[in-house]
Amino acid sequence: MGITGSLKAPNLKIDTGKGEENFDAPLLEQGDLNGVFADIALDIDRIKAATVRLRFIDAQLNIKDGVLWIDDADATVFETVSNVELRVDAFSDPPVLSFKVATGDVDPANIGNDLGLQGFMTGHIGNIEVSARAQGVTLRDFADAADVSLLIEDGALSIGEGATSLEFLSLNLSAKPGQPASGSESIVLADIPIDLDLEFVTLTDLFTKPSPWVLNASGALLGLNFVIAREITPSLQVYASPVTMRMESDDLRTALAEFDMDLPKPLPLVTHGTLQMLDDCVAFDLEETQIANTDVQGKLEVWLEGERPRVEADFDSTLFTVDDFMESEPVSEITDFDIVTFLADPLPSWTMPDVDLKIRLDAEPINW
């Protein structure tokens, strides 16, 4: 059977069912395209299939010797012109499917609009590339054998009413056959680049297990080792929420030195809670924090941009040890306590930066 000519359509709807198809049912078998020849120019104003919306498709569809391919096609995705390549090789045993989509200068607001979340995201994305190659007969086969890569570059996003903000240089995520997706992300916080190692679920789990799925990120900054966990769901609403965080450091002074703060003693740190990058600050909700012998819980907000940093904190402590933050002094002969002399003695000096501090501390015992 041979088909040549052109197809023009203002709207083309592809019924993909209710999303309850058998994951192990045959999807593409060897020889499915045998005996078919096609050379068709496509000019379609709109294609709708499930949540996928393509507009202004200009492509050449070819079928020959059991292989279907579309090379160097133009389509509008999220109101942005994109380049699309597709190849379905039903001659091979098992069949092979591959595709690539590349687009640039994306307005994130259009992504939210297409998903029914008007006004949910603003900002800019410089470049997006998605490519995949898989082989098999069933959808499970393709998921198990897929080699998928995602590259996003040059982005600045504000998400949700709370204005969760993120500026990133690159996000690179890939999934090899049968392995969890992994990759790297480079983000920017107050002009400080931060590199993260990423780990996600396998592609099969993405199709067969219900959300949320967990994206783990780990990295180091200013001597602080941290692990962040983000729940991922099909809805973009989750990205406006804080992420779970755990952070450790052998000596917190390494980080404080970057802000011109100098304290006299090593300060080992372990903390866990949540982290949210807002439009103008970083907000921490610390469920439990241990700094040397002192424990604190509460909220911490840090503004790093502007003429000078600003810090606001609201802490509770069940044990606050002042000696953790003071220079040790020689033990002197015990004498009767004199409150007047005590108040007249100057406190040990700290080297502090030019910073605005607003801290409330509610402590039970204070050890000195």
Keywords:
368 residues; mainly beta; 21-stranded mixed β-sheet; 5 helices; elongated
Blueprint of the fold:
Blueprint: E1 2-9, E2 12-13, E3 37-49, E4 52-64, E5 67-77, E6 80-89, E7 96-106, H1 108-114, E8 121-135, H2 139-145, E9 147-159, E10 164-175, E11 182-189, E12 192-199, H3 203-208, E13 213-221, E14 224-232, E15 243-249, H4 253-257, E16 269-277, E17 282-291, E18 294-303, E19 310-321, H5 339-344, E20 356-363, E21 366-367
Parallel strand pairs: 1-3, 2-3, 19-20, 19-21
Antiparallel strand pairs: 3-4, 4-5, 5-6, 6-7, 7-8, 8-9, 9-10, 10-11, 11-12, 12-13, 13-14, 14-15, 15-16, 16-17, 17-18, 18-19
Question: Which stretches are poorly predicted, pLDDT < 50 over at least 5 residues?
Answer: none
Average pLDDT figure: 81
Helix/strand-derived category reads: mainly beta
**Distance between termini?**
90 Å
Number of H/I helices? 5
Sum up the overall morphology in one term. elongated
H and E string: EEEEEEEHEHEEEEHEEEHEEEEHEE
Number of strands: 21
Can you describe this structure?
The protein is mainly beta and 368 residues long. It contains five helices and 21 strands. It has helices at 108-114, 139-145, 203-208, 253-257, 339-344, and strands at 2-9, 12-13, 37-49, 52-64, 67-77, 80-89, 96-106, 121-135, 147-159, 164-175, 182-189, 192-199, 213-221, 224-232, 243-249, 269-277, 282-291, 294-303, 310-321, 356-363, 366-367. The chain has a 21-stranded mixed sheet that branches. A hairpin with a 2-residue loop joins strand 13 and strand 14. The relative contact order is 0.07.
